[in-house]
């Protein structure tokens, strides 16, 4: 496997769509008796992804 990481930014609704799609894909693999460990890992990473905090710069324009 490649050690290169990819990062994407999505809002909460898109995150839900990603989770539902991955769960459907996992269910398809289960019905075909194929391994699902990698898909489970991706689902877990999507669910546990921490939100990125925005930098706020109120009132700093004049500095």
How would you classify the helix and strand content by structural class?
mainly alpha
Rg from C-alpha positions? Answer: 17 Å
Low-confidence spans: pLDDT under 50, at least 5 residues?
A: none
In total, the number of strands is 0
**SS field, number of helical segments:** 2
| Main sheet characteristics | none
The first-to-last residue Cα distance is 48 Å
Helix content: 40-55%
Strand content: under 5%
Shape: elongated
- Average pLDDT, all residues: 88
Q: Summarize the helix and strand pattern as letters.
A: HH
Tell me about this structure:
The chain is mainly alpha-helical. The protein has a domain of 37 residues. Helix 1 runs antiparallel to helix 2.
What's a quick, concise take on this entry?
With 63 residues, the protein is mostly helical. It has helices at residues 12-31, 37-48.
Keywords, please?
63 residues, mainly alpha, 2 helices, 0% strand, elongated
Topology:
Elements: H1 12-31, H2 37-48
Helix pairs in contact: 1-2
